Every structure is written in structure tokens, then in C-alpha cells.
Amino acid sequence: MDQSLFHLINQEWTGPALDLFMAGLSDSEIWRPLFVLIGIAALVFGGFKTRVFVVCLAFSLLIGALVTSELKSAVDRRRPKQVQTVRMVQLQKAHPKFLTLFNKPSIRFSDSSDRHQSGPSFPSGHVANNSIIASFCTLFYRRRGWLYWFITAAVGYSRIYLGAHWPTDVIATVFLGIGESLALLAIYESIWRVVGPRWMRQLFANHPTLTCDIDDKTRAPGASQPST
Known about the structure:
Layout: H1 2-12, H2 16-26, H3 28-45, H4 48-75, H5 80-83, E1 87-90, E2 106-109, H6 125-140, H7 148-161, H8 167-199, H9 201-206, H10 214-219
Antiparallel strand pairs: 1-2
Helix pairs in contact: 2-7, 4-6, 6-7, 6-8
């Protein structure tokens, strides 16, 4: 089933527009500057919850990268291109990197030279990172944060489309990212409940949890509103 679905996505359900879209979406070098700028802007102009979101997310991505690296070594599952011939999409070189999105990518099929390139297949670093981002967006911004899951799903699909991972790698990594996010947020909340009341009483009074503050509670459905 895993190989059959991989074959369909990688070699049957393809097209020129998808080639460029999937390769561009999956290239972290294109999007990293944008995410960094958004993070800096959030730290400078955002409120308490926004800043906490950025800091917690940054730490979680760092920890997640360590977990991914250790699991790759422990599981040591081979990538599709390391065990069979796969269809590969390569973006053209460009500077700045995002200009490659205006050029037609090249298509080739893997050969023996690809058998020893890249690391193990599980877990997927791309999917792990985006699952952590989606989880934190959902937990901190419940009204619209869940929309980031569409990006995560697209990135996961692109990793299969580009021949980098098996479908089961992507699915399992999503659950791994969710689990990591929930565990790390629980740790952050525990630390805040200890540190906040002791050293930042007023701030803790306004923000009793990291994901919800007083304003959020007053805006919640059914919350009592002050009389006028």
C-alpha cells in the first residue's frame, strides 16, 4: 500500500504546474527569510501572547530538530530514491532564491548516484517542523490558527511528490509533531505557573496561561460582559 500510493503520487499524479508548485513549496531556503521576518516583526510589535508564541515555537523547533535527528539515526529507514527509481524535480539555481519560482524546474529520475545521498527517511524534517508550527498556531490562535494545517498537508504531500519520503513517513511524522508540541507546551505552561506568580505577578494576573489571557476570556462565547 505504501509503495503503491507513493508510485501514484510520485509518477502518475504529476504535471508541469505541480512540479513547480511542489518543488517551490518544499524548498525551505525560499521561505526561511519570510518566516524570520514574520518572527522578528511579531517580537517587536506583538503583545504578550504573540511574543510567547514566537519564543515557544522557536524553542520547540530547535528541540524538534534534535528529536528528528535522533530518530532518523535510530530508525534508519531508507528513502524511496535509495531503494528504487523515483521521479525527481529540481529547481533551477537563482539568487535570491525565490527567483527560481519563475523558472521551469528540471525533471530527472534517480539513479545509482542517489543511493547514498541524503539521510534516512523517517521522520521527515519538513513535515515535523510544519506540524509543530501548525500545532502551536492551533493552540495559541484557535479561531484561525488551524488553517496552517492546510500548509502542513501540502508540504507533506510535496515530500511524497518529490520522491523524498514514503506516505507513511509523512503520516507518522504529523502525529509525532503533534505529540511533541503538546508535551512541550505542557512543560512551558508548568514553568510559567511556577515562575509567573513569583517574579511577574502583574503579568501573570493578566496572562494566567500562555495560550489565553484575560482579554481572550472576556471575548469567549458565553463569557459575562461588564455592565454599561
